[in-house]
Amino acid sequence: MKSERMEADEIKQAVKEKYGRAALRVAGGRCGCDPVSSNLYNAAETATLPEAAVLASLGCGNPTALAELHEGEVVLDLGSGGGIDVLLSAKRVGRTGKAYGLDMTDEMLGLARENQRKAGVTNVEFLKGEIERIPLPDGSVDVIISNCVINLSADKRQVLREAFRVLKPGGRFAVSDVVVRGEVPAAVRSSMELWVGCVAGALEEAEYQRLLAEAGFEEIGVEPTRLYEFAEGRIMGAFVRARKPLE
Question: Of 105, 107, 62, 106, which Cα lies nearest the Cα of 87?
Answer without folding.
Answer: 62
